[in-house]
User: Fold this.
Amino acid sequence: MSTYDLIIRNGYVVLPNEVKKADVAIQNGVIIKIGNLLDDTGLEEYEAGNQYVFPGMIDVHVHFSEPGRAHWEGFETGSRMLAAGGCTTYFDMPLNGIPSTIDETALLEKAKAGEANSVVDFGLWGGLVPGNVEELEGLANSGVIGFKAFLSATGNDEFERADDFTLLQGMREIARLDKILALHAESDHITQFLKQEKEEQGLFSPDDYAATRPLLAEAEAVERALTYAEVTGCRLHFVHISSSLAMEKIEAAKQRGLDITVETCPHYLLFNQDTLIEKGTVAKCAPPLREKAEQDKLIALLIEGRFDMISSDHSPCPYELKDPATHNLFEAWGGISGGQFSLQTMVELAITYEIPFQKVADWTAGTPAERFGLSSRKGQIKEGKDADIAVVSLNDTHTVTEDNFFAKHKQSVYMGHTFPCKVTATFKHGKLVYEKGEIRHQGRGTWLRSMAIEPSI
Assistant:
């Protein structure tokens, strides 16, 4: 008989290759034993009661805006929101803070804010922008997870899109540093050309906005980036891919041996262009929500295992930026607020399309951990790994309201949506961070500097 710090009992544990009824024993923040532990005791015990026990989500793509714009979303509110959705680790993008994370000084300033305010673990992306290629080595040495660049306008003056020469220079340097470049892949020339045409005609509707960011704009940018990766040897991660046409090009490049991963986001799978028409600016993002036929193709690609991972691209702002006085959709901030609902979305899709929960765990935790060098510690419910755990009930539904959405600003495309499941508890390192609508543990998360973890595989 053994005594542990915590035993989570009677859950359906989502393991890498199966789901089985089991208890999970935790000691010093680490999973020690999985199985029938009737003869063992815990100093604390949590009754999962036939709920599903998932590995905590690793969200590799969120936009918190601290320092400088914490009134948009800071580490405190943002991390609590993610914890309420079963997320125990996230990577914050480099563009929305002031200063943007484009040099070592800015990185350390952001990390200090994260260490002071985040309730779960986090990593930080560095930025690739015109003029900062010489800063990349310092950022890498200080622990960035990787680098992020935009091929189209970012919407923030502090973080410029990367021109082609900057991309080539940056990719060569990032390859030398053995890092990964994450890319927002939309053609700036195509999107700006089409936007100018619409504005000259006085056309500002949701359909007009979607028409300025067509599938071809994403596919062209993806193909260009893939060509530059072949020239430079740079590893790539494509963020928020929203079209089957872009996926065809990525699949072909993978088959040629390029080192690439690709994510899509829950909002592209759960919503479509009709949602943008119905809900307006809260559903505006870039790339835009696609037509229903394209949404169906993305879901089919997901089921086939073509996407490597799922991330939220949580991109909030004060609501006045979502609702400009001109009521011009082109002037509204383009980002979906909803990082709390990624795991629930994937569980909903798994129920609807009979997808094994093991695949949900892999998309939301396993593959992100492998790709970004966390797999010795995170990504699976397995003996020896961090006790980062999300408990999900299929016996409860969850209707999104302002009261149960933990983000700083409550406007979201998810508002009013009812999930056929509910995150009831989240554990970080074996500590109960969130339970039934409340943040429980007030401890701080750890900055996961890449030099402190094993290389990517």
Observations:
- The chain is about 30% helix and 20% strand.
- The longest strand covers residues 3-14.
- The chain has two domains: 3-53+382-395+420-439, 56-377.
- Residues 452-457 have pLDDT under 50 and may be disordered.
